[in-house]
Amino acid sequence: MHTIAEAAAALAGRERILVFTGAGISTESGIPDFRGPNGVWKKVDPKNFTLRHYVQNPDFRRQRWERWFGAQRPTHRPNAAHRAVAQLWSTGRMIGCITQNIDGLHVDGGLPESALAEVHGNPRGIMCVDQGHPSKVAEVRERWQAGELDPRCDCGSILKSTVIMFGENLPPAATYLAYQFSTSADAAIAVGSTISVFPAAEYLLSVADRRHPLVILNMGPTDADELATARLEGKAGDLLPQLISALQAQAGG
Ligand code: NAD
User: Fold this and answer.
1) Is 188 helix (H, G, I), strand (E, B) or coil?
2) What would the pLDDT profile of 107-148 be if each residue is shown by its tens digit?
3) Which of 52, 144, 171, 228 is the most exposed place for a label (fewest CB within 10 A)?
4) Angle at 45 (CA atoms; ends 44, 49), nearest 5 degrees
5) Beta carbon of 118 within 6 Å of any ligand 1 atom
6) Is 231 within 8 Å of 2 (Cβ atoms)?
């Protein structure tokens, strides 16, 4: 394990840092990760989160809409780590952020959408499963509130949120942006991810493959630890703001 000073030193002089985030950056906002000690996969079966299951099960779809639009919907706020990513962006030393997260908290935390590749989708849109026709969230919410509990597209197709399910293609615009960030980066910081989900992890690993520095900040081991130039062990909300402050101090900012 390394210190904040060592991790910052590994990134010295780098002006196009890629930030790669996973579910662990949002656990301090109250959203469980998948594979951590309190991960979702310890309680629910990932097989239920496939596109096929969604399309074939009207009850499951009704549950998803209820969870999204219903009164019991939990609200989650960005934490210090999301704000630290936005802070790094504002210094001009970051090429962009690739997130596997589907919670939208990077945008809520102040990162512009143009700096963010949400490769597993986001909760800000709705589309139909057959043609990808977009629908407005506010309009579908109104229809749901008026009693349409399994709303349909004008073309008759089933609607779903733009959060990607297993078995679904990754969103082309986000993957294109992720490719651009990854190929232009001259360093990377991975935060709160086991770096085990592909193809998302490929964007990060390709930066290390080009022998650029890689800083990994995580609680627990990741699949890429042996590639790390520096490895920070601990909470993203504690350590990432410290690392970003150290980078700002380097730049005299
Ligand atoms: P993962 O569950 O495989 O790994 C998360 C890692 O973060 C674990 O090693 C865990 O120990 C660590 N961690 C937990 N809390 C942390 C903290 N406060 N600080 C630092 N590290 C912490 O997650 P992944 O690598 O992102 O991959 C799994 C998939 O999870 C992705 O495809 C993503 O779409 C999905 N997912 C997203 C959310 C979300 O949007 N918030 C939540 C659950 C799962």
Assistant:
1) strand
2) 999 999 999 999 999 989 999 999 999 999 999 999 999 999
3) 52
4) 100
5) no
6) yes
120 as an active site residue: the answer is yes
Catalytic residue among 82, 106, 120, 212: 120
**Does residue 84's CB lie within 6 angstroms of at least one atom of ligand 1?**
no
pLDDT in tens, 233-252: 999 999 999 999 999 998 66
Comparing CA positions, the residue from 26, 130, 126, 131 lying closest to residue 69 is 126
pTM of the shown model:
0.92
Please indicate whether residue 129, judged by its CB atom, sits closer than 6 Å to ligand 1: no
Q: How far is the CA of 115 from the centre of ligand 1 (A)?
A: 20
Find the 145 Cα to ligand 1 centroid distance in Å: 32
- Output the six-digit token pair for 214: 């890689």
Q: Can you tell me the distance from the alpha carbon of 196 to that of 33, in angstroms, rounded to the nearest whole number?
A: 13
| Residue 36 in tokens | 């951590």
Output the CA 154–ligand 1 centroid distance in Å.
Answer: 36
